[in-house]
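User: Show me an example of a complex going from sequences to structure tokens.

Assistant: Sure. Here are the input components:
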Amino acid sequence: MMEMFMVIFVLFIIIGLGMYYFYKFSFSNQQETAEDSCVQSTNEQLSSVLQMPEIKCSNYANDEECIDIVKLIAFKDEPSIENLSRGSCKKSIIFKQIYPSIDERYKDVECGEQEFRDPNFPNNCAIWNLFQPLEADIKNKNTQIILETPVSLYFPTLNQYRIGRLELKIYQK
Amino acid sequence: MKKRGMVSPVFKYIMALITGTMFLLFFINFGLQYMKTQESFDAYRLTSGFDDILSALGSSIDSETSYSFPLTRIILEPDKDGKNRYILSAGKSTKSIPSYKIVFAPKDLTGKSLSILTKRWYMPYGIDNFFYLTNERYKYFLVYNDETKNLVYDIAGPDDEVTPEISKKFGIETVDENTLLTNIPKIEKFQTPTFVLFQENVNLEQKLNSISNAKVRIINLNEKDNFGEILFEDGQKIPFIGKPMLIGAIFAENSKTYDYSTSMALNKLGVITKIYQEKLRMIAQKPQFFTCNQYTLIKKSFDTLISLTRSYEKDPNEYINLVEVLEETNQVLGGDCPEIF
């Protein structure tokens, strides 16, 4: 009788271990797929962000292929900007001016309303941080994947176009 | 006499039966749980992939595509929390994803593929894309008479001369009101036909209403064809502002979802107008633009438009007037006073 219990006990342990590793493998597989799908969806977003009516340029109500930097500043304060984030796929959306290059002192300065009011604008800042996930959401995510694309930035007050870059930074474990 | 330590064979059999059943139940339960998790995960991937496809399609102001997937039930419902978004779920999954896309579609999209059409809504500037979804289970009939033929052909007519707004693969058929009456027996074979009448016709309405599962909607057009009112099958009258909204009335599940989507659109109109209002405020603060008097006029129109959208007012006439004023005022800008939109 004792031998039978021992056999059943050992069998349970073997099955338990097998299931633990099976679940672990399956879970990591799902996590990997979720991360791949996050990169894929961010890739799609790279083009769709540029078409958002909230930031897209228009010329007498006709859409133009550029980003209006004044709308970009105005959109940042809109509560609906939160809709850009979805589920566990955390990412930041940043626009950077790359040409003409900005003085080293202002390269990391974010362009807000205060900078816009300054007579030196747009030479006093180079970054538009459109969306940033909460610190708590990216605390344990140490890997960063950056997807980027060139963009045309339009400065309506100067009627001038400059070359910029859209960066989508994905935070992953 | 029984010896100590000896087990009766009957007990052994019972023991083996219990252990065997336990093992079997355990494995069945494990398998079912795993299947459920996998199904839920696949459904989540399907819905989020679907939302990505809509986002990608939204890059274009007017386009269409087909989306294929394994036979699944896709459900699209307005969010009950009043957050101005749709909830998208697939299969038996309890997991769903929120979608902020303005969608006009039947609630149940069970099938293997979806036809997706998108159009951008302008008021007068670009507001957002509307998405129209359907599949092969649904059939739509646009009924015209001599007066409304051009408009109907413009929406979904034959594409030999002008490309219509909606292609044939969306299950749309244009029918003359006189020929429809003679074709009613043939129409009855469709599972859920939707009839959109572009002119009131009491006799025809009565006949169509007698078809089981048929939805009959009547469009009352304004002098300008792009504005008016839709009378739904439940007796609700809801206005439409612009052709993209009119097209939405063809594909919407019912008056409630149509009303929900149009409210989402008005909310977005408010958001975009607020951004332009901010843009105007920031530009007007720059000393070189202090002399731009037109900005005051535009600001006033923006203020009225924002309060209109906040009140969820849907009277098309109110919007037409404002849009015209905005367009005219913005048109004279340029040069020393940058245009706002």
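The lines above are the inputs; the final block is the predicted structure for all two components together. Chain B touches chain A through 48 residues (CB under 8 Å).
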